[in-house]
Structures are given as structure tokens and as C-alpha cells.
């Protein structure tokens, strides 16, 4: 009997080895490192300029006290111990990736420290067993010239990714979430990084469902990011976490999270507007189950991703199909 064509067989998107109609992070890692990789979250004990008063206090309204580093061990645990323990835990699920690990500095702003401190932390991480690259989460307004020069040199020795939190290109939204810098400042930092270190992979973070933001403004952010043309992008759903200012607003009835159908629809549309060579590192976030107030539907991450796949397939859409039509 002749086999019925599968979605994978009928996938028109070239940068895929599955039914995914977008350039997945998993596919990128396989092409770059030759197989499955794992990201090992680390907390180097950094802070943020909108926490310590440089440009604000309290951090972004949705950010947990761990500064998005909730999956890492405490910064009080030595970095090498953090790495060993997290690597052992992750390789239970993915044993083949034991020798292909990315040290991921996720918590807070990881270029917001004296240069010598940064060198100590990042150079140490490169010595850990199995490390093939570094991911450094930071802000576009925290890239001093001496830091840029060091990062450029570092990118010659390892696969280096800098994750820049934009969330929205709308300055009114940025003010509401207490981001602490403007879109113009983001673009200045982005351009300086690209010029100083062209080998660095730049990953831009975007969040859908921010307070007061319209669907048109969310798509405008995607279009603005597409014009910047980062190497990678993360699209997050806004999670409401207990103990945050957003959590307080939600419990007071002052914020309503996105509905699942709306998030699926907008995320699929966003993919069609992004250049086809931009790696899609994430299409929904991971809120800590114990702290997640809303939306509860986001806990079933696989179902959300499957719904996005189905939405694209039913319309014969794929990443970048409308990227040049705007």
C-alpha cells in the first residue's frame, strides 16, 4: 500500500527536518554542533540597571525575583557545582547531548558588571566538561565598549549568543512594564554589537500579551525586529507569576492575560512576517508551575506548539512567506 504523504513530506519550508514550518532552534543546533544540545542554566549573581536604580527600581513588572533565572540553582552555589548538577539532571532525558552543552547565563543582566568579573565568569564556564558554546542574556543598553571588545574576542573562540530583551518596540509599552530603555536605545546597542562582533549570534526577545498592548502593536514589534534581522528570536507568552507587580495587578483584576486561540493565531502570523533564516528559539515560555497565576492553559506547552503547527499547515503558511510583502 502506498504511504499517505505526511506533513513532513509536504513541508515547503527548507530549513526543517520535521513538520515544523519554521527554523527551529533544535534544527539550528543540529546543524551547528552535529547533534542534540542541552542548555545548562547558570546564575552568576548579576543584577539589572532597572533594579539597582541606574535607570529604575523593581525590575520589569513581570520579572520574578530571580530575574528569569528560576530554572537555575541559587547564585550562592558555586558556578561549577551549578553546572555539574544541572548537566546531570538534563542528561537523564538527553544522554546523547552530554558532550554538547551550552552554558546559559539567564538570570538578570549578564553584561552588567565590571569587565574583569565578566571575564572570570565566562572564561570559567568555557572550561566545564562538554561546553561547546555560551548563551548570555542581557540588555542592549548594557554593552559598554570594553565589554563589546571582549565579547568580540570571545566569539572567535566559541559559539557565542547574546540574548537581548526587547519585548516590545513600543515605548509606551516599555514604560508600562518598567523596561528602562527606549526602542532607539535598543537599536543603538543592537547596531553596536553587530558592528563590533559580527560572529556573535544575536537573539531578540519579544513578549505577546503585555499590558495595554494591541494586536497591531504586537505585529509592529515583529515587523521592527524583522527589519533589524537578528540571527535568532524568542517569542514569549506573558506569564503572570506570583510575587510580581504584574501578579498583584492580575489578582486585583487590572490585567487580563491572552486567550490561547489569540496567542496561537498571532504567533503563527508573526512567523510568516519574519525572515526565513531567523532561528526561532522559542514560541512560548515556561512559567514555574508553583508560581504561575495565569494563563493556566500555558502549562500544556506541547499542545500550544501543536496548535501553532496546525494553524500554519491549514493555511499552507510557513516562516517568511509574507516577510517581503510588508
What is the fold's blueprint, element by element?
Blueprint: H1 25-33, E1 38-42, H2 79-93, E2 101-105, H3 115-126, E3 131-138, H4 145-154, E4 159-167, H5 171-176, H6 183-196, E5 201-208, H7 215-228, E6 232-237, E7 240-241, H8 245-251, H9 260-273, E8 279-282, E9 292-294, H10 301-315
Parallel strand pairs: 1-2, 2-3, 3-4, 4-5, 5-6, 6-8
Antiparallel strand pairs: 7-9
Describe this structure in words.
The chain starts with 24 loop residues before the first helix and ends in an 11-residue tail after the last helix. α2 links the parallel β1 (38-42) and β2. The protein is globular, with a radius of gyration of 19 Å. The chain is α/β, with parallel strands linked by helices. It contains ten helices and nine strands. The chain has a seven-stranded parallel sheet with strand order 1-2-3-4-5-6-8.
Order of helices and strands: HEHEHEHEHHEHEEHHEEH
Count, helices: 10
Span between N and C termini?
A: 45 Å
What's the shape? globular
| Helicity level | 25-40%
What composes the largest sheet?
7 strands, parallel
Give the overall average pLDDT.
93
| Proportion of beta-strand residues | 15-25%
Computed Rg: 19 Å
Poorly predicted parts: none
Strand order of the largest sheet: 1-2-3-4-5-6-8
Number of strands: 9
What structural category arises from helix and sheet content? alpha/beta
Amino acid at each position: 500500500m502506498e504511504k499517505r504523504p505526511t506533513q513532513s513530506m509536504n513541508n515547503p519550508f527548507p530549513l526543517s527536518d520535521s513538520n515544523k514550518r519554521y527554523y527551529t532552534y533544535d534544527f539550528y543546533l543540529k546543524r551547528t554542533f552535529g547533534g542534540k544540545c542541552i542548555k545548562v542554566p547558570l546564575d552568576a549573581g548579576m543584577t539589572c540597571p532597572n533594579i539597582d536604580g541606574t535607570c529604575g527600581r523593581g525590575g520589569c513588572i513581570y520579572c520574578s525575583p530571580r530575574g528569569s533565572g528560576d530554572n537555575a540553582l541559587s547564585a550562592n552555589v558555586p558556578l561549577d557545582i551549578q553546572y555539574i548538577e544541572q548537566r546531570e539532571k538534563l542528561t537523564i532525558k538527553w544522554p546523547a547531548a552530554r558532550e554538547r552543552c551550552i552554558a546559559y547565563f539567564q538570570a538578570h543582566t549578564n553584561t552588567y558588571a565590571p569587565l574583569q568579573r565578566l571575564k572570570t565568569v565566562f572564561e570559567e564556564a568555557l572550561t566545564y566538561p562538554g561546553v561547546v558554546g555560551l548563551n548570555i542574556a542581557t540588555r542592549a543598553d548594557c554593552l559598554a565598549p570594553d565589554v563589546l571588545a571582549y565579547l568580540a574576542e570571545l566569539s572567535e573562540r566559541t559559539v557565542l549568543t547574546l540574548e537581548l530583551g526587547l519585548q516590545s518596540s513600543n515605548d509606551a509599552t516599555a514604560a508600562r512594564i518598567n523596561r528602562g530603555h527606549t526602542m532607539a536605545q535598543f537599536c543603538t546597542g543592537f547596531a553596536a554589537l553587530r558592528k563590533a562582533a559580527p560572529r556573535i549570534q544575536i537573539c531578540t526577545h519579544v513578549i505577546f500579551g503585555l499590558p495595554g498592548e494591541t494586536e497591531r502593536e504586537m505585529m509592529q514589534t515583529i515587523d521592527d525586529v524583522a527589519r533589524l534581522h537578528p540571527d535568532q528570536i524568542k517569542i514569549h507568552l506573558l506569564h503572570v507569576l506570583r510575587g510580581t507587580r504584574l501578579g498583584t495587578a492580575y489578582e486585583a483584576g487590572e490585567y487580563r492575560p491572552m486567550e490561547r486561540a489569540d496567542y496561537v493565531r498571532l504567533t503563527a502570523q508573526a512567523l510568516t512576517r519574519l525572515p526565513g533564516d531567523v532561528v526561532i528559539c522559542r514560541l512560548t515560555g515556561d512559567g514555574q508551575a508553583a508560581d504561575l497565576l495565569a494563563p493556566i492553559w500555558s502549562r500544556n506547552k506541547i499542545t500550544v506548539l501543536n496548535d501553532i503547527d496546525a494553524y500554519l499547515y491549514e493555511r499552507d503558511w510557513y516562516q517568511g512567506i509574507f516577510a517581503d510583502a510588508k
